[in-house]
Amino acid sequence: MADPIYRRIAEQLRREIESGELGRGSQLPTELELRERFNASRNTVRDAIKSLIALGLVETRPGQGTFVTREID
To answer: How far apart are CA 3 and CA 23, in angstroms?
Structure first.
């Protein structure tokens, strides 16, 4: 069975963090940009971000966006 879309989005963003494309302190694309990039719904993108938050890779700052909190070794 294929992974849910939110997991695929989260995995792609995790790979970008791991590769350094999104380094520590970098801001993730906006929710709208992610929706367009992955052709996904708002809730799907939010679920992907929530899973990255649960892994401790990103944090959301109200009114500012979502930022990478740590690099992956």
So the answer is: 26
